[in-house]
Specification:
The protein is of the alpha+beta class. The chain is 42% helix and 9% strand. The protein has 13 helices and 6 strands. The strands form 2 sheets. The chain has a 4-stranded antiparallel sheet with strand order 3-4-5-6, with helices on one face. A two-stranded antiparallel ribbon has the order 1-2. Helix 3 packs across helix 6. It is globular. The two termini are 43 Å apart.
């Protein structure tokens, strides 16, 4: 009774290669359980169009228009592939729900459920197909709201929190200090842990703070530069490994700000009202203060990135190989 444990489970079920996690029989069962969603999509589509997607996955994600022209994919098949992959993604989510549900059931069966703080979150979300977007089926390089909408579900120990939905902005870096706060574990003074401890807010002891949710695209590493070498669209927007190519975003309540590469070396800033435009497809005018905040964030990222390039990358790669993360 005097001991505590931190248990971390990590699943990759809904990541970009959607069909890789799913057997045809599982997809058939999903379609049978959800006929209204399925429409006219069949297991044959999963076998044929799903296979075609996986064979050309990176080109379809990062250079879609040129790729469908190259492989001769008709407009009808493009639309059908988009509907198929949305259903495949939903089926993957259902599998993940089942895994998480089994973990919760095991906790209840063990008698430890009441004593356990259970948290579910992720590293990013995922966007599917929207013709208005630069890139399709993925994450990482265009800061779409879906990839930034990271789930965070909490079931507190001892029934400490009333059920409900948190209305404010939270960031991934708030997860650790909040879990520590809910467990009564103090963060030592001078710690490098960043983020906001929201435990008192969740307990109703103080008002929710107004937080800016910052986001940015990645700098392409050499592996991605090699993979994207023949993909004209992504190389137009990310032609090199320069941190100057980073896009930045800021979430303020339901207002979303983004500074994006225009593909010609310039950057355009826009605002979006997510309450009425949840996919951020209709840009609005941005204020000088908002653009300044985006540009200052980008300048800080570029400066920090360049400061860190003094590390011995060969030594780091050797360490990663020893740990099994790199082959």
């Amino acid at each position: 009774p005097e001991l505590s444990a931190l248990v971390v489970a990590n699943f990759t079920v809904t990541h970009a290669a959607y069909t890789a996690q799913l057997e045809p029989a599982e997809f058939a069962a999903f379609l049978a359980r959800n006929p209204a969603l399925a429409g006219d999509i069949t297991v044959a589509d999963f076998r044929d169009l799903g296979k075609l997607y996986e064979e050309h996955r990176l080109p379809l994600q990062w250079d879609h228009a040129n790729t469908v022209a190259r492989i001769g994919l008709s407009a009808e098949d493009q639309e059908r592939m988009a509907r198929l992959l949305e259903l495949v993604y939903r089926a993957d989510v259902e599998i993940l729900d089942g895994i998480v549900g089994a973990a919760r059931a095991a906790l209840r069966a063990s008698g430890l459920d009441y004593e356990t703080l259970f948290a579910f979150t992720a590293d990013h979300g995922e966007y599917l197909f929207h013709r208005e977007r630069l890139f399709q089926w993925g994450h990482g390089l265009q800061l779409a709201p879906e990839e930034l909408a990271v789930p965070w579900i909490l079931k507190p120990a001892h029934g400490a929190l009333a059920p409900g939905r948190y209305a404010g902005t939270t960031r991934s870096m708030d997860v650790f200090p909040t879990l520590a706060g809910l467990c009564g574990v103090p963060i030592p003074a001078g710690s490098t842990v960043r983020g906001e401890d929201l435990s008192a807010v969740l307990r109703g002891e103080r008002a929710a703070p107004e937080l800016d949710g910052l986001s940015h695209t990645k700098v392409l590493d050499q592996r991605l530069m090699d993979e994207f070498a023949d993909l004209a669209l992504v190389r137009r927007y990310f032609p090199s490994q320069s941190p100057e190519l980073l896009w930045t975003g800021i979430r303020r309540g339901t207002r979303y700000l983004r500074l994006a590469n225009s593909g010609d070396g310039s950057f355009a800033a826009a605002a979006y009202e997510l309450a009425t435009d949840p996919l951020a497809l209709r840009p609005l005018a941005i204020t000088p203060e908002e653009r300044g905040a985006l540009e200052r964030y980008k300048e800080r990222l570029v400066r920090n990135y360049r400061d860190e390039r003094g590390v011995d990358e060969a030594e780091i790669e050797g360490d990663l190989k020893d740990l099994g993360y790199v082959r």
